[in-house]
Write a structure and sequence with these properties.
It holds the Pfam family Vps62. InterPro entries: Vps62. By secondary structure, the protein is mainly β. Helix content is about 0%, strand content about 35%. It is built from no helices and seven strands. The strands form two sheets. The chain has a four-stranded antiparallel β-sheet with strand order 1-2-7-5, with no helix packed on it. Strands 3-4-6 form a three-stranded antiparallel β-sheet, with no helix packed on it. β1 (about 20-25) and β2 form a beta hairpin. The chain has a domain at about 20-90. The termini are far apart. The model is unreliable at about 1-15 (pLDDT under 50). The chain is elongated, with a radius of gyration of 19 Å.
Length: about 110
């Protein structure tokens, strides 16, 4: 346990650090971590790239309802799967007329 506030407000009590949801951008966005993944595909190195181990691409699984994917995850095949991604949703109720999450207009 760590205590930084001498008035008795312990930080780190309960073991829940970085395990919930947070609000950012003035409370406009709620973020959550995705830690479970489904494999999309595995790429193996070609004969020319013998130094490369290849890579595997993953998509988050079990994303909480109402949250939007902010991306997918990729890592070298030489490592065990160990990654995190953020998922987001607009706070309820929205604080501005323009929503904080919009679909892309162009790629």
């Amino acid at each position: 346990m760590c205590e930084f506030d001498r008035r008795g407000s312990p930080i780190g009590v309960g073991g829940g650090f970085a395990r919930g949801r947070i609000r950012v951008a003035g409370g406009e966005l709620e973020l959550a971590a995705a830690t479970a993944f489904d494999k999309i595909c595995t790429l193996s190195p070609s004969a020319r790239l013998q130094r490369c181990d290849g890579a595997t691409f993953y998509r988050p699984a079990g994303v909480p309802e109402g949250f939007t994917l902010l991306g997918h995850y990729c890592q070298p095949n030489s490592r065990r799967l160990h990654g995190h991604l953020l998922v987001a949703r607009a706070a309820d109720p929205p604080r501005s007329a323009e929503p904080p999450l919009l679909a892309p207009r162009d790629y």
